[in-house]
Amino acid sequence: MKVFINKNIPEDGIKLLQDKGITFTINPTENALSREEFIKICQEHDALLNVGTNKFDEDFFQQCPNLKGIALFSVGFDSVNIPSANSRKIPVGNTPDVLSRATSDVAFLLMQSVARKSFFNHKRILNNDWGSFDPLANLGQELYGKTLGIFGLGRIGFEMAKKCKAAFGMNIIYHNRSHNEIAEKELDAKYVDFETLLAESDVLSVHSNYTEENNEIFNKNAFAKMKSNSIFINTARGKFHNENDLFEALTNSIIWGAGLDVTNPEPMKSDNPLLSLPNCCILPHIGSATYEARNAMAICAAQNIIALFENKKMPFCVNEEVYI
Known about the structure:
Distance between the termini: 23 Å
Largest sheet: 7 strands, parallel
Shape: globular
Strand content: 5-15%
Order of helices and strands: EHEHEHEHEHHEHEHEHEHEHEEH
């Protein structure tokens, strides 16, 4: 059995595969493969360790009937048509937990950066626009005692809430499909409906798994219901927000600011008007970009592949129903 790895991963994961004697091929080029090239290579392998945003739809599975499993180098699995995988008994693995702290760190960073307009003020120095002291210019806002709203209070959202509670004494409200009893007990988090989340959040941070039903849920109507001093943070998936509507909300002072580690579409073009706004801070999807997180992701992905080859259940399987 052979494995295809479409991009190089940290050595910790490679070594695990080597120690188990698993035969694998790593994409020899740093360039992204076209869909046709990707499918052709997958047709020649038994399993895939996938890095990036390749789309695993019904057409992909039809063209790759030989695949016995997919290990994703990510927490999110919205790129996979799970019903199509299930119908073929193909397990799909992800890398949960190991990047929760790193991703929440970026959300926390963006929240503070937006509050104090740090990206904009850094650009002022580069543009030789420091100027003299002006007590009324470029003022930010403090976060102490404010209300943090979490859309999707799972592992990453919990880490974000914990940081905000400890650092700024922020009140925590959240909207989930179900109650998070641990967060309610440990962080005094309060479950609210979506409308209340919009209306009461001073900072609204998105940490949910993306589904089509939530596509661009943060749009013109949603932003209009938020506080004028509110900060919108998205480190989950760019498809949660409508970027044109976000631009309008920011330029018309409907909300205070926004911090994004994900964009819609992604990657963002360098001439995107959001990049020019003083109240918008954008990073190029670096939520998991630490040595610790990426090494741990590589280990999780390798463990999923190893389990597949040993005819065992993937330890981090997102569609466990294939084993029934």
